[in-house]
Amino acid sequence: MTERATTPDPRPPHPAPDATPDLSSKNPDWWRQAVVYQVYPRSFADADGDGLGDLRGITRRLTHLAALGVDALWLSPFYPSELADGGYDVADPRDVDPRLGTLDDFDGLVREAHRLGLKVIVDIVPNHTSHQHVWFQEALRAGPGSPARDRYVFRDGRGPSGELPPTDWQSVFGGSAWQRVPDGQWYLHLFAAEQPDLNWSHQDVRDDFRTTLRFWSDRGVDGFRVDVAHALAKDLSEPLRDLGAPELSGEAALTEFAPGTHPFYDRDEVHEIYRDWRKILDAYSPPRMAVAEAWVPGARRALYARPDELGQAFNFEYLQTPWDADALRRVIGDSLATAHAAGASATWVLSNHDVVRHASRLMLPPDTDENAWLLSGGRAPAVDTAAGLRRARAATLLMLALPGSAYVYQGEELGLPEVADLPTEVLQDPIWEQTGRVRKGRDGCRVPLPWTTTGPSYGFGAAGAWLPQPPAFAAYAVEAQDGVEGSTLELYRTALRLRRKLLAGETLTWAREAPAGVLQFDRGDGWRCVTNLSAEPVSLPAGEVLLTSAPLEDGRLGPDTTAWLGR
Question: Buried b / exposed e across 408-445, counting CB within 10 Å, b at 16+?
């Protein structure tokens, strides 16, 4: 077979589903039960053969998403960036990184997506900028006490010569959250040192992001994913307060503080910002949607999803729940209640660009230290890839049966596992260096996609890829699975086609009686989902079998299998 990386095939092997949902202005609530496909641009498709994915590569492969049956694509950052944090260090929020294309390329992507019936959501990064941003460079030149520094969080250090950080706050990526500059002051960076935090009490910051929202909305963008939505507002009143322990700098410490009072996470003042944004988003027809990345407890997450704020928020409790029937039932129930209280729809996600892919993660024992597992190259404990894929397929059908929006991460439709054995010399995630090479980071879920079974990057591009792909990727390639009955790709296509026909309301009803280890619920629109998380096959309730994640075993639902039934 020949390499086909740069051949723009305008039609997929399978046509896009006929039952295209109404994504026009007639349905402003299209997002409430949409399936959104996350594209990590640098790892999706490379059109120019430089080893880095780009916008034209995405545009050429949009027919794959249309054939898959998703409703929208979400683009992770494609803005100018030195890639200190995989693109989340943004030097200009209203332009395209030259390595990824141009604004004309972006406009072409949006036009083609809309032609295929796909909505487009873009990532925006309001908590911080790149240290290469013109504002930060101006702040460095201007010096202490200057108006330019007020757009960021600069402070004098402690100690006789200001040699100590202003507080004991810690970076998410490890080490102090403060970086000293040559004139002696320190600036705050909750993430990498190349990502200085903005001061959201400054009017310039607020005005500039209003401009950014309008800029992309005017170019046809249908929505926004808001990065680190819970960290914008900070208590910067003097004196800044220490937390007393490094662990209190993390999101997990929010329960140690009265709601809304942590110095820099999930403060009550953040909601005024999003109420202001909603006025801008609602000025468009249809209104632009938004979803918050907010690592906060469920009751607090509901605040971000209120109709007069962002409207939706990611549900990370579901992603973090072990493969256990009782635990999943509790989280599903709580998540639906939280979304209902906010007037929002629930969100469900199994994988993204920040976590171990669920085809591997769901097979790890609940007490596994995922970083230690990554450092072992995925060998301690070893993961049975076939069993992991079976469990991942069952988890997918369960997720897609739930009321609300499902967010799918690129490559999960191929069943890709985590590439846990990347050699340390190729790692790009700043976590690796910033933690003194103690935490391996997130590169294993960002390895470029395989499109063909041969070629230097399995169809990703005409040459190699920016992260090496393992030889096993050939068996997962789109080319290897397309049209193959029982393949994971065909399972996703079938499930999404059925979901369009079956989905209506936003509620479910749990079965009064179900075998131990089994999740079973009815959807009010005439179908039911049964997932067997036990170790033994179970009998199915009455109903027409519409789809199963694995073949039935003598008419029974085997372990780690989900079935959809008509009623």
Answer: bbbbbbbbbbbbbebeeeebbbbbbebbeeebbbbbbb
